[in-house]
Write a structure and sequence with these properties.
- With about 300 residues, this protein is an alpha/beta fold.
- The chain is built from 10 helices and 11 strands.
- The strands form 2 sheets. A 6-stranded parallel beta sheet has the order 3-2-1-4-5-6. Strands 7-8-9-10-11 form a 5-stranded mixed beta sheet, with helices on both faces.
- The structure holds manganese (II) ion (MN).
Length: about 300
C-alpha cells in the first residue's frame, strides 16, 4: 500500500520539497512512499521544481483509509482532511508541536531549525546514512534558502547554513545566494494575481484561545510591489475573515531587503495588536521592524495576546 507524504495546506517550497525528499528517503528504506501536495504550487516552488527537473507531486487533500506521513507541520488546521481516518506513520517538522495525536507510536522528529530540509539532511546523513540524490539536494537547498529568507530570518540557525553549504555541493549549485535571489524574485511576483490568491499564497490558520486566526505572508524584494494593491488586499482580507468565521486575519507584507514587516490587520479586537507587539494599529496596518518570521515573531506573541 502506498504511503503518502504530505506537507501543509497552502504549500510553500519547504512543504513541497520536504514531501519529495522524505518520500525519496523512505523509498531508500524500502517503503512505497509517494510525495503529495495539499494545494497548488506557488511561483517560487514552480521555479524550484523546474530548475531541478523534478515532477510536481500529486494532489491529495483527504487521507481517509490512507497511510501517510506529514512534513513541515503537525497542526490539525494545516493537515489533510480526515487526518484521523487514515493511519499517520511519521512526522518530520521544525515548528512547535501541534495538536495532532495518534493512537500508536510513530516516528516523530522535530528540531528547532529554520527548515524541514535541514532536519531531513540529518535524517539522511546521521540517522539512516543514505546518499542524497543531487536533484533532491537541490530541492532541500532551495527550501532552506526560502524558509530562512536567504539566512536572514530569526529562525535561521548555524545548522541551516552549514547544511545548505553541503547540499549546494551535492546539487552542484555554485552560487547559492544568486539562486536564492532568483527564487526571491519569483516569490515576489504579485502582478496580475487576484488579491485573495495573494493572501492565500502562504497562509496558515491557527487556533488561538479557541478563536480562528489566519496569518498570510508575502515575502517581497520591495514593498513598492504592492503599494497600489493595499486597498484591494484589505477588502479581500475582510472577505476571508467573514467566509471563515475568523476572529482575525493578518497579512504580513515582509520586505526581505529592508528586513521588516508591514502587518495588515482585520480583527474583531484591534487592541490585540498592541498587546502582542507593543505598538498600536495605525489605521489598517503597523510597521514591525526586524520581523520576518511568522513562526517565531508573529505566532508566539499573538498566542500570548490571545491567551492561548
Ligand atoms: Mn518550513
Amino acid at each position: 500500500m502506498a504511503v503518502y507524504v504530505l506537507g501543509h495546506k497552502n504549500p510553500d517550497t519547504d512543504s513541497i520539497t520536504a514531501a519529495i525528499a522524505f518520500a525519496e528517503l523512505q523509498k531508500k528504506l524500502g517503503v512505497d512512499a509517494v510525495p503529495a501536495r495539499q494545494g497548488d504550487l506557488n511561483p517560487e516552488s514552480e521555479l524550484v521544481l523546474k530548475k531541478f527537473e523534478v515532477e510536481v507531486p500529486e494532489l491529495v487533500t483527504d487521507v481517509t483509509d490512507k497511510q501517510y506521513m506529514l512534513v513541515d507541520h503537525s497542526d490539525i488546521k494545516q493537515a489533510p482532511d480526515n487526518w484521523d481516518k487514515g493511519e499517520l506513520l511519521a512526522i518530520v517538522d521544525h515548528h512547535k508541536v501541534g495538536d495532532i495525536t495518534t493512537p500508536n507510536p510513530i516516528f516523530f522528529c522535530a528540531m528547532p531549525v529554520g527548515c524541514t530540509g535541514t532536519v531531513l539532511y540529518k535524517l539522511y546523513v546521521d540517522l539512516y546514512k543514505k546518499e542524497i540524490d543531487p536533484k533532491v539536494a537541490g530541492l532541500m537547498l532551495s527550501a532552506i534558502l526560502s524558509d530562512t529568507v536567504l539566512f536572514k530570518s530569526a529562525t535561521c540557525t548555524p545548522d541551516d547554513k552549514a547544511v545548505a553549504e553541503e547540499l549546494a555541493k551535492i546539487a552542484g549549485v555554485d552560487d547559492m545566494m544568486a539562486w536564492g535571489m532568483e527564487m526571491a524574485k519569483a516569490k515576489s511576483a504579485v502582478e496580475g494575481v487576484a488579491p485573495k490568491d495573494l493572501i492565500f499564497r502562504d497562509y496558515k490558520d491557527f487556533n488561538m484561545g479557541g478563536k480562528t486566526v489566519g496569518i498570510g505572508q508575502l515575502e517581497l524584494v520591495s514593498l513598492d510591489l504592492v503599494a497600489n494593491m493595499k486597498d484591494d488586499l484589505y477588502e479581500a482580507m475582510k472577505e476571508v475573515k467573514e467566509e471563515g468565521n475568523r476572529h482575525s486575519v493578518f497579512l504580513m507584507l515582509t520586505d526581505i531587503m529592508q528586513e521588516g514587516t508591514e502587518l495588515m490587520v482585520v480583527t474583531d479586537d484591534p487592541s490585540i495588536v498592541e498587546k502582542a507587539f507593543g505598538k498600536p494599529l495605525e489605521g489598517r496596518s503597523v510597521w514591525l521592524p526586524g520581523v520576518m518570521s511568522r513562526k517565531k515573531q508573529m505566532v508566539p506573541p499573538l498566542e500570548k495576546a490571545f491567551g492561548a
